[in-house]
Design goal:
alpha/beta, FAD/NAD(P)-binding domain, 5-stranded parallel beta sheet, 7 helices, binds NADPH dihydro-nicotinamide-adenine-dinucleotide phosphate
Length: 312
């Protein structure tokens, strides 16, 4: 069985940054790219908040650069999906594509999180053309425009408030008659003159010629007074939660109720010696490329120290 010193699972900013550091520390890292090579940024258009790019950079280009930088220091990048993990003892065993199992002395889990979508056909049709699941990433393109945010939790409220700082009008579509978000977030949303909360509303579809121009909504779906109408809007933001890609690791590492891997304090340590978690799979709060990259760096430094301390 192949034996790897530093195995990195996932190829977003966390995975590639871990690879850059691990490569420069001579750990001969191997990165498995996973379902979405390059991660969530490959489905973003322009990234304007990653330090070092004063003019911004296209998401796929940024990820391409990170991959090249990782390869420059000897990272081997493979295209396969982790389908099984056995973290019961070292060396840890990870199976890819239900087919090949490798052994690893250290494992960096950087499998990311996937934004949830409603499942409407139009979300795919208008992907990158007005549909987004990240206000911090894409909000800037909606200055003085009208946007719709879907969701009633803390993320939706946070995104609505952020977007209200840029857009001229924000509709918050909430499927229940109340917000699930914390009291303070609810108050901020309800007090914001630019945000109009539409309770008991669901989105049914989108319309527009060359991008989103509006949303088909239904009010009080399934009730006798059910009502269908259209809202004119330039952007459609999903904020109905994220699903961390931690399933195969959850029998071994601690996760919260949503599935985010719980690490020790500020570190990427999972509690299993030599197994670290970096990026969105362990971050329910920030979910930014730069915070993911930073945690990937920490994970590689931890892996290097672990290998040295254990003479591996
Ligand atoms: P949540 O699961 O808390 O909320 C998801 C929201 O989306 C709910 O209002 C839910 O509605 C709605 N929703 C889910 N599916 C659909 C659907 N198909 N159609 C319409 N609406 C839907 O996720 P969040 O991402 O908001 O938060 C995740 C965790 O992170 C929470 O614990 C939250 O407190 C935390 N967080 C904290 C922040 C902070 O403290 N500043 C900021 C952001 C997140 P319903 O209520 O009907 O189920």
């Amino acid at each position: 069985m192949e034996h790897i010193r530093c195995l990195i699972i996932g190829s977003g900013p966390a995975g590639y940054t871990a690879a850059i550091y691990a490569g420069r520390a001579n750990l001969s890292p191997v990165v498995y790219e996973g379902i979405q090579p390059g991660g969530q940024l490959t489905i973003t258009t322009e990234v304007e908040n990653f330090p070092g790019y004063p003019e911004g950079i296209a998401g796929p280009e940024l990820m391409d650069d990170l991959r090249k930088q990782a390869e420059r220091f000897g990272t081997e990048i493979r295209n396969a999906i982790a389908t099984k993990a056995d973290l019961s003892k070292r060396p840890y065993k990870i199976t890819f594509d239900d087919d090949t199992t490798v052994e690893a002395e250290t494992v960096i889990i950087a499998t990311g999180a996937t934004a949830k979508y409603l499942g409407l056909e139009d979300e795919k049709k208008y992907a990158g053309m007005g549909v987004s699941a990240c206000a911090t990433c894409d909000g800037f393109f909606y200055r003085k425009k009208t946007v719709v945010v879907v969701g009633g939790g803390d993320t939706a409220c946070e995104e609505a408030i952020y977007l209200a700082g840029l857009a001229s009008k924000v509709y918050l579509l909430v499927r229940k008659p109340y917000l699930r978000a914390s009291k303070i977030m609810q108050e901020r949303v309800l007090e914001n003159p630019k945000i109009e909360v539409l309770f008991e509303h669901n989105a049914e579809g989108l319309f527009g010629e060359n991008g989103v121009e509006g949303v088909h909504v239904v009010k009080r779906k399934g009730e006798t007074d059910e009502e269908h109408y259209d809202i004119t809007a330039d952007g459609f933001f999903l904020a109905i939660g994220h699903k961390p890609n931690s399933e195969i690791f959850s029998p071994w590492v601690k996760t919260d109720e949503t599935g985010y891997i719980i690490t020790e304090g500020d570190s990427p340590r999972t509690g299993i010696p030599g197994v670290f978690a970096a990026g969105d799979v362990a971050d329910p709060h920030y979910r930014q490329a730069i915070t993911a990259a930073a945690s990937g760096c920490k994970a590689a430094i931890e892996a290097e120290r672990y290998l040295v301390e254990n003479k591996l």
